[in-house]
């Protein structure tokens, strides 16, 4: 993908499927027609083991890297200008501290729809990531405790899309909270989060994202969509629980890019 033919001409939709494990995502490929309708997940390594670290890297232009030993295979999508490093002609260079303000400098309206705790804007730390954006939103109903969080997030996104003229280029970022714990309530009767309940959460999320993708298609601009996880999580493997630690269940993440 030549990002210099994307930035400026396409709307850009970036979705982080917070805490989604790579193995979970692969097991549900056939049940995710919206996320995987045009291809399978790619296995990548995340630059951060938890939300705060990973998103700073993403907004700095460091997306998850292909899980291969040959680094030359990876063409960076975004790169800071004037670092002195050689960059690929398909890499889009930005002159700002981060890609979000970089897109704004190209005329994009930048919108953040938050999900997990680091996007709640409830205290100064939880305002840092949303503050990258011109417009940021978080509601109780978008958060991890609401079993219909993605439905609410997508409804909010649809409203914002309606209010944006087609001529206005849009960078929309959505942090999906549903797959993050607690997710046991996606399996009736389950008391603990597990790979199975994360799978159920992912199926729910995919079902809701269909409406968002349709709305971008109906808007009429081509949309470049990036969908990936910020980190996985451990459910007891090798004794580990959760994330913010280094384990393959955490550092392997699913990644996809496609045009809507
Ligand atoms: Zn996260």
UniProtKB/TrEMBL annotation:
Domain Sulfatase N-terminal: 97-254
One Pfam family linked to the record: Sulfatase
InterPro entries with a match to the protein in the record: Alkaline_phosphatase_core_sf, STM4013-like, Sulfatase_N
Name of the protein in its database record: Metalloenzyme domain-containing protein
